[in-house]
Amino acid sequence: MNTSLFQQERQKYIPKLPNILKKDFKNISLVYGENTEAIQDRQALKEFFKNTYGLPIVSFAEGKSNLSFSKALNIGIILSGGPAPGGHNVISGVFDAIKKFNPNSKLFGFKGGPLGLLENDKIELTESLVNSYRNTGGFDIVSSGRTKIETEEHYNKALFVAKENNLNAIIIIGGDDSNTNAAILAEYFKKKGENIQVIGVPKTIDADLKNDHIEISFGFDSATKIYSQMIGDLCRDAMSTKKYWHFVKLMGRSASHVALECALKTHPNICIVSEEVLAKKKTLSEIVDEMVFVILKRSLNGDNFGIVIVPEGVIEFIPEVKSLMVELCNIFDKNENEFKGLNIEGMREVFVAKLSDYMKEVYLSLPLFIQFELVNSILERDPHGNFNVSRVPTEKLFIEMVQSRLSDMKKRGEYKGSFIPVDHFFGYEGRSAFPSNFDSDYCYSLGYNAVVLILNGLTGYMSCIKKLNSKPTDWIAGGVPLTMLMNMEERYGVQKPVIKKALVDLEGRPFKEFVENRDKWALNNLYLYPGPLQYFGSSEIVDEITETLKFELLK
């Protein structure tokens, strides 16, 4: 494997573990908390997860253990969904833990995500292979995939492959949908009387997989530092040239955590928070009005430049557009045969003919390129039923609507400034980066901790590391039942159990800090320039945590 000098140096980094996980496994005792309940829809979930619902939260403490295993382990591992910095360190943590327990233990990586499990397409992750991927970004050690395990045939195949490989446990590294897969698989194995454990690991740069016990999903720290550097560079460019308005769309299909974190790091002139849009029932026109107001006020000060941050999924949070997308989706699902063989223009005509009067008005008010991309986003829903909102160039939609509004104002003599917009989408640049020290430590701990959960005979749990605003040695290790994170949601017209996405809390400290400052940031040039993600140097810089965690875990 070819390696750069940086990679060679980075592989020398030794991730830190919580003190409790450094101990001999025989001296780590399992502490049970109270039995848990799901977030909502408890009766329906209790019926669905008859064997794994209501498990207690667990933690680890020093003391005599009651290990369920004495012989070598065979563990299967799956990388599921989009990449996030630190995935390889989860694998490193798992590998080191099982080898410490018994040097004859084996770790198998299923290639291409859940599909690899269904097709028994795997490789053994050996010491030399794992060592070559330590502290690196990406998921390329075995690659990832988005296959959903959801049918009886899938469950039977997964069970057959697990038994064929004599697996004691499967670890699924993924986001909310992937960990829902983990919960369903754990329940199925239990129902069949098979002692094959399933443990989930919280991954997503969007940070929409978190709660009181999962303080952050891995990858968020590294990705937001990378995006913030690029936004900071644009801030500096805007200050240098004093003539461009940079519209930056950021990853965040269902939540605005990435946008909010980058705003706290860089102080842009405008940042949309999707959850606020929904809570205040803002229309598309109202959002544009707010942007135009800031642009106009800045132009009166001679500042014909600025930075606008737009979350990737904001279009689904605008009530009128969300209703439109739901209606478009229902039309397609109920009339699928009518769309066969049609090009995008033909499909659009069918939609226009079948939309209700008000939704037709909303749809036709959008620029034509957005109309087409909404159709594409419905056609390209992923296996979990999610719209492909990244297809919708929301930043370009806002540019066009702002430009149109300013042009009308200029004709009426109400605007004398200049507006030169530049659009950007920062997404994939952050997903497979070298993980920060935080993500390197956090991911290694999550993987190592997952093995300790397995050794204690647990299944249907998510690996959980808490107190993340303290030193890694002081972090608290444990596990949270996957069913505790769930609710029922409609997917393709059917109610299904799904881990509920964690949206930005409008009463939370990070958002309140943003609200307190955004008016000052809007009209003044108070940009911050975070610079590149640091890997070497003083602990104050290389071990810095996100602004989100600082505020959320503030004592």
UniProtKB/TrEMBL annotation:
Pathway: Carbohydrate degradation; glycolysis; D-glyceraldehyde 3-phosphate and glycerone phosphate from D-glucose: step 3/4. The record marks K203 as: Important for catalytic activity. Substrate binds at T204, I205, D206, K243, Y244, M251, G252, R253, E312, Y428, E429, G430, R431. Residues 74-320 form the Phosphofructokinase domain. Its EC number is 2.7.1.90. It is found in: Cytoplasm. Signal peptide: none annotated. Its main location: cytoplasm. The record marks D177 as: Important for catalytic activity and substrate specificity. It catalyses: beta-D-fructose 6-phosphate + diphosphate = beta-D-fructose 1,6-bisphosphate + phosphate + H(+). Homodimer. This is Pyrophosphate--fructose 6-phosphate 1-phosphotransferase. It comes from Borreliella lusitaniae. The lineage of its organism: Bacteria, Pseudomonadati, Spirochaetota, Spirochaetia, Spirochaetales.
